[in-house]
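**Polypeptide and fold**
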Amino acid sequence: MSGLSTATVTRLPRYLRLLEEMPRETVSSEELAGAAGVTAANARRDLAALGFQGIRGVGYLTTELRDRIRKELGIETRRRVGIVGAGNLGTALARYTGLSKRGFDVAVIYDVHPGRVGQRIGDLTIRHLDDMTADLEKGVFDMAILAVPAGSAQKVADALVEAGVASILNFAPTRVSVPKSVAMRQVDLSNELQILSYYG
């Protein structure tokens, strides 16, 4: 990683989505800026931070820029994801094909509910959370998605950290604390809807 600003890192997936859909060999800073909702100057600064300079009047080489962003994001190879929580949200995430299209394979899903453990979701069989540590040691997954009730989220996050997971995406409707060595992203759908409600 290059020590990029948080704002730049947040925009990289937006640039990447455009680049992966771009049929041409070059892309302009204006097109990239439109994908990220920033100015062309912002986009050029972001790409300069990656060590990329555009060609005046031509733009950026699509394939090279795409590969560089994928490398910076750590997804030049496919990543294996474990989902904790096989309720409605966890099940929907396990079935969501967009993850696979972006380089993330859902490798396993866990729950503690006796009625869910052993059930099938597509090609996956729901495993008991007690199997998680052994699965991590075997390299079954290296990133986790938390889709558990708020009351369980911190306990499950602690177990993930203790087992060695260094990247967690939290969909539980509560803030979760992890050590600074662990990358954590919080996704609170109700918060996002409240913000949208203000604008709409």
